[in-house]
Amino acid sequence: QLPTGLYKKILVILHDSVLPYMNEPTLMMDFLTVAYGIGGAISLLALNGLFILIHQHNLEYPDFYKKLYSLLDPSIYHVKYRARFFHLTDLFLSSSHLPAYLVAAFIKRLSRLALTAPPESLLMIIPFICNLFRRHPACKVLVHRPAGPADMSEDPYIMEEEEPSESRALESSLWEIQSLQNHYHPDVAKAAAVLNQSLSEMEDDISGLLELSGYELFDKEVKKKATDVPLEFVQVRGLFGKKNDIFAEHFSLD
């Protein structure tokens, strides 16, 4: 059992500074699978090494997607390693051979967590979800269900279920993204409105959005050229807009 800080230091560099130089990288299987099961940031960091072992050294991990699904909690939109996590998750969900129920469970859980996510994360996760729909057309029933959310008395999706196959995600609808179409940030509302139209076949490139920060969004808004917007048709007279009130006698707007 290693200290948490040491786990993080090792896992950050393991995939590119250790595994490529080992004669038998498979010796790290037990270490990485144990680290992956710890949870939190340590599990996120273990994904890099596990991906190399699965992709290049035929590691079999039957519960891999179940564990990946369990890592999706509200903190994933705020953690330091968010870009790395979603880059790898995008790779893991890229196979067209994944069952529809599994992908639908990921789409639904990501959408539910997006309700409390900051704008910079939403501008990344909405195109991410759109890409999943392009790869797995069977999941489009979440968007194009007849009558949509209005046809359901309650959402059948079980958020607390740890097993994706038992979450009933395919029976649900994507009302969360529909609610984001009324988001206070105009860019988020515009991105969410894309699902109202038919998606293009070309996937969105999310690589430039993975490390988008709140500071960059704020800086972009500040640099926009302001335009004069008329707020009143009738010119205001008096402090509170009334012509003959007591405030108009003692206060002037000039």
Automatic annotation (TrEMBL):
- Tell me where the transmembrane regions lie: 31-54, 85-107
Any Pfam family from its record, for instance, is: CBF
Give every CCAAT-binding factor domain span.
43-192
Keywords annotated in UniProt:
Membrane, Transmembrane, Transmembrane helix
Q: Does the keyword Protein transport apply?
A: no
- Specify whether Membrane is a keyword of the entry: yes
GO process terms (BP): ribosome biogenesis
Q: What cellular component terms from Gene Ontology apply here?
A: Noc4p-Nop14p complex; small-subunit processome
**Family the UniProt entry places it in:** Belongs to the CBF/MAK21 family.
Write the protein's name. Answer: NOC4L protein
What is the phylogenetic placement of the source species in the record? Eukaryota, Metazoa, Chordata, Craniata, Vertebrata
- Give me the gene this protein comes from: Noc4l
